Amino acid sequence: MLQFFFAVAFSAVPLTLYVPPVRSLNLFVETLEDLLRETGVYTTRVYPRVRHACSRIMDCMLCSTR
After folding, report:
1. Are 20 and 28 in contact (CB under 8 A)?
2. The pTM is what?
3. pLDDT of 27-59, one tens digit each?
4. b/e map of 39-66 (b: 16 or more CB within 10 Å)?
């Protein structure tokens, strides 16, 4: 049982290298929130144009297949 415990413990140690510390994670989340906040205005302005362009492209594709 002790050998199993050490095997599990030592196999889990490298996994801790992939998990960032909480300080770094908070900085990442804060940066992501700032990015989303800044691009929100741009996205709401561009989204209708993109949707209109996609609908025109789809209309052209559907009309050419008829």
Report:
1. yes
2. 0.37
3. 888 888 888 888 877 777 777 888 888 888 888
4. eeeeeeeeeeeeeeeeeeeeeeeeeeee
